[in-house]
Design brief:
about 350 residues; alpha+beta; two-stranded antiparallel sheet; about 30% helix; Cas7/Cst2/DevR_sub_I-a/Apern; antiviral defense; Type I-A CRISPR-associated protein Cas7/Csa2; CRISPR-Cas7/Cst2/DevR; CRISPR-assoc_Cas7/Cst2/DevR
């Protein structure tokens, strides 16, 4: 895989179920002193028909932002290239002409060749932009599609009745603010200070399921105009392997629940219940989403069918501590998620070397 021709997909997919109680990970808006949790409409099958329900959710944008922050941190630990904005967690990704100007990059790109060279340069200089993609607003827009795919975390359909939203009452109480000194200072500023402030934060609890996919094959290669390695051939293989390694390490923190907002005061009660991951070589394969306790067994069945149909090799990885989860007889669940991630990393690196 060290040349300029990318052949055969090395594709990672995983889905997990987590019990998340009392979380405020993705707030949508504030109406007065009421801070609302994000909610989405979903179709569920109940009593012989489909009905619409509004449930708590965590957006794919929120999850993707956290993943890319962890990606930057892990890349820096290995001494890999990360641009200044991504180091700070400001994922503008050269989407501003001011950044192009400060970095002395061309912003009047008018040809396909120039667009290709700009994609190549940016991709080489930042792991986050290589894996997370970018869009540069030049005259000929330079676009790199994200190598990872993620969507909303929503309540598992089988456990939809265990999902709820509830407003929690809070008060900021500062009696000193009612004293003469503070009131006079406030009057001079033309403001009114109050000794207490009442506010509500809407929290959600649910058995959430999330899914994530990652295309390792095209890491380190351009894609907009033509396929070409972004590093010299003698360096390309090692850079790609290192970037693949940090991509998996960042995923570890994501699945462990280290994402979202308001965690300093609303750190959720987060427990990873079960997970299935797949590494496919040859064709992309996405595991079944964790909407039921049968999702691991269903994934195994589908992987075997894909292998018979296309010859695609699919390696599966299982972690399950949830009661009544259906585990195929030929599956060997890992004792810990950490053990699973270590083995998955080794297998991906081996596949990329092949």
């Amino acid at each position: 895989m060290g040349g300029d021709v990318v052949s055969g997909a090395v594709w990672l997919s995983l889905s997990w179920r987590a019990r998340v109680n009392v979380e405020a990970l993705n707030m949508a808006e504030a109406v007065g002193n009421y801070i609302k949790h994000r909610r989405v409409p979903i179709a569920v099958y109940e009593d012989g028909k489909y009905t619409l329900r509004y449930v708590p959710a965590i957006s794919g944008e929120s999850i993707a932002h956290a993943y890319q922050q962890w990606l930057a941190e892990e890349a820096l630990k290995l001494g890999l290239n990360v641009c200044e904005m991504c180091k700070k967690g400001e994922l503008v990704k050269h989407g501003s002409r001011a950044i192009l100007e400060l970095e002395k990059l061309p912003f009047e790109v008018e040809s396909a060749d120039a667009a290709h060279e700009l994609e190549k340069r940016i991709t080489a200089n930042c792991v986050v932009e290589d894996i997370g993609g970018f869009l540069v607003p030049t005259r000929v827009p330079v676009k790199r599609t994200s190598r990872f795919y993620v969507g909303y975390m929503i309540p598992a359909l089988e456990d939809i009745k265990a999902a709820t939203l509830d407003p929690q009452f809070h008060v900021r109480h500062a009696p000193s603010m009612l004293g003469t000194e503070y009131r006079e200072a406030a009057r001079e500023l033309g403001v009114t200070e109050k000794g207490q402030a009442i506010y509500y934060v809407e929290v959600g609890s649910a058995i959430y399921t999330g899914s994530f996919s990652l295309d390792f094959t095209s890491i380190g290669y351009t894609s907009m105009v033509k396929v070409e390695g972004v590093f010299p051939k003698e360096r390309l293989q090692q850079e790609r392997l290192q970037r693949a390694k940090v991509a998996i390490r960042a995923l570890y923190y994501l699945v462990q629940g280290l994402f979202g907002a308001k965690r300093t005061r609303f750190q959720p009660d987060y427990e990873l219940l079960s997970l299935v991951a797949a590494v496919s070589c040859g064709n992309p394969f996405n595991v079944s989403p964790g909407h039921s306790r049968n999702f691991i067994a269903e994934t195994y069945s589908r992987a075997k069918a894909l292998a018979r149909m296309t010859g695609t090799e699919v390696k599966l990885y299982v972690y399950a501590k949830e009661p009544e989860i259906a585990i195929p007889s030929d599956a060997k669940p890992y004792e810990s998620f950490e053990e699973l991630i270590a083995k998955l990393t080794d297998d991906v690196i081996a596949a990329l070397k092949a």
